[in-house]
Specification:
This protein has 231 residues and is an alpha/beta fold. The chain is built from 8 helices and 7 strands, in the order H-H-E-E-H-E-H-E-H-E-H-E-H-E-H. It has a 7-stranded mixed β-sheet with strand order 1-7-6-2-5-3-4, with helices on both faces. Strand 3, helix 4 and strand 4 form a beta-alpha-beta unit. The two termini are 23 Å apart.
Length: 231
């Protein structure tokens, strides 16, 4: 699998990312059930053909990225730490499927915004975790950062809130190299329009999306496994 991915890494976007995702979806479709963590998605009908979205998702464990990247329909990229891109082999896959950023470098952060705009313009979705880092608290969500919402406003691109259920049960916070098999549910919610919004609307937009995700998560935590599903 690594040789085809290495060859794909030389292709231009969006073809490079599309081919990479095609391989990833086949592999994860086999691997996740094999380790006892099948992924079930709900709300795919919210994605309209020809429309790009900023998909925002909660973040509970390391397994979130390999679930969301193939799980979001269509071609998509995520934002990844620059240091992850330096890891042998694994970093190559992150560099294909992600936009690298050094959060300590102002210039790198500005360039990452340009790259995300370019990805949207090329017809790709952006998948972002507005909590920034993994949620190790006992609360459903941590406070959101501004980045995903600034991008959506500037690009006038609708936001699709999404939620992962049970990934924290697979990788329990504070336990290194520890994982338990568990079903994963990945739910997409109705899009939030950003047409006509400006930076002045940022606090209201961010709070609106936060509340939508909070209310859905707290209302579905116990019932996610009983809801309609597609693998």
């Amino acid at each position: 699998m690594l040789i085809p991915i290495w060859i794909i890494s030389f292709f231009p976007d969006p073809r490079k990312t599309r081919y990479f995702l095609n391989i990833g979806r086949v592999w994860m479709g086999i691997y996740m059930p094999l380790i006892g963590c099948p992924v079930f998605r709900k709300g795919l009908h919210h994605f309209k053909k020809g429309q790009q979205y900023v998909v925002v998702c909660n973040h509970n464990s390391f397994i979130d990225v390999p679930v969301t990247t193939p799980g979001v329909p269509g071609v998509n990229k995520t934002l990844a730490k620059a240091e992850v891109g330096k890891i042998p082999l694994f970093g190559m896959m992150y560099r294909i499927g992600g936009i690298m950023v050094d959060r300590k470098d102002d210039n790198s952060r500005r360039q990452s915004f340009e790259h995300m705009h370019n990805a949207l313009n090329m017809g790709m979705h952006m998948v972002l975790f507005p909590e920034g880092t993994r949620n190790r608290t006992g609360m459903p969500l941590k406070k959101f950062y501004d980045g995903a919402f600034i991008l959506a406003i500037e690009a006038q691109t609708p936001i699709i809130p999404s939620l992962l259920f049970n990934t924290k049960k697979i990788q329990v916070p504070g336990k290194f190299l520890f994982a338990l098999p568990h079903r994963i549910d990945f739910h997409f919610l109705p899009p939030v329009d950003t047409t006509g919004l400006t930076r002045a609307d940022l606090p209201v937009l961010k709070e609106k999306v936060f509340n939508i995700m909070w209310d859905y998560y707290t209302g579905h935590t116990q019932t996610a496994a009983l809801s309609p599903e597609t693998a």
